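Example record

Each entry pairs one chain with its bound ligand, beta-L-fucopyranose.
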Amino acid sequence: MDYTEFMRAAAHVKPSARQMAWFDTEFYAFVHFTVNTYTDLEWGLGNEDEKIFNPYDLNCDEWVEAVKSAGMKGLVLTAKHHDGFCLWPSKYTEHSVKNSPWKDGKGDVVRECAEACRRGGIKFGVYLSPWDRNSKYYGTDAYNDYYVNQLTELCTEYGPLFMVWFDGACGEGPNGKKQVYDFERYISVIRKYQPDAVIFNDFGPDVRWCGNEAGTARRAEWAVVPTELCFRCEKQTDGALREGDISYLYNTEEQIGDTSVIQYSKALGFAGAEIDMSIRPGWFYHEKEEPHSLDRLFRTYINSCGANTSFNLNVPPMPSGRFDPRDIARLKELGDALRDAFGEEKKIPVTLKTIDTGSDTQTKIEIRLPEKRKIRFVDLKENIAEGQRIESFRLMNGENCIYRGYTVGHRKICWVNAETDCLTLFVTAARDTVDMREISVYGE
Ligand code: FUL
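Structure tokens for the complex follow.
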């Protein structure tokens, strides 16, 4: 395959409809809740007494309101974490809410949460940990049946799911054995009952882990990656540009989607990254912890939703089942800051004009404002439905470069500080014809 052919193929690797819907969901909440909330642990042991789980004041409508106040459009609940305790009354285990004193064992957190999301108009998803430190089946083939049964309950009894989140952790079960997870089977169950749900796992198939829990995307974040890395993605290209196997590639590496790496890939696939981070240091609630500052959360939004990834921000409920008022306040502050920065009042109407450079990949687009204004953000979107192409760009204010960036993809937010009536987006390298979905400018 020659260079032009290979790059063109790479530039036309496309998202599925469910991946497009997920990219547009952008910002959603994780809710980590289980026996750990009552034991102050991050990883439960699996032998916790069901009676300790008692969210006597559970209020999922309050969760949904708090999540919405931050501008989030979905919520993913830990239906089961590594400790194996189920937040719904699964038919397949006694280690669940049905043996807790809460609502005399008649409660179902998954149902209350799913219904509250529906009432509040946000999407609902579930996390079902494959690692289970409680199940007596763990470490045997019977565990895969057990897991599939639980997955089926969640996929068939709680309405539409927008996401199923698989954790990569694989530790020992109660009998000291590790499990060989049958992911192919798990994936087929989700596709059968919830075809619109994206599946998150460290390596895809639909959404991949960004590689850290600190809230930072790569300098160049590609949704087009080698299937040598994301081996559960559909293979959309056929053949490498250069001989030589990719012998090492891991999802914490910086260059996973760069041309220097993908040229050796025998098949590329589409898997956008998700940034997952907790509003506090821990994933579960610990009274002594404080939520992160507004500044940190705002910057994380810019470095995730504004860097071609989605942002899954965890908010852990307290033992009562309510969110901590400090978290509720911080979420509202974050939403206010985002509405202020990207609200319609701050959006400056612009006129776009493509300047003929004689090149389809080194494109210049003039962004004209109605008058001279102080600007804060330039929000770029590629038409990613047709593939991700831009490798590097600059924003010019006359002769001055005011921003230098790399990938754009679904969305790139450029945080600038300039006063201008005309900017130029200068794409300096791209894998094929530049195709923009939207260019917006937000003023001070
Ligand atoms: C990790 C888990 O081990 C953590 O407890 C948490 O659930 C995080 C989102 O994923 O792999």
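The first strand starts at residue 27 and ends at 31.
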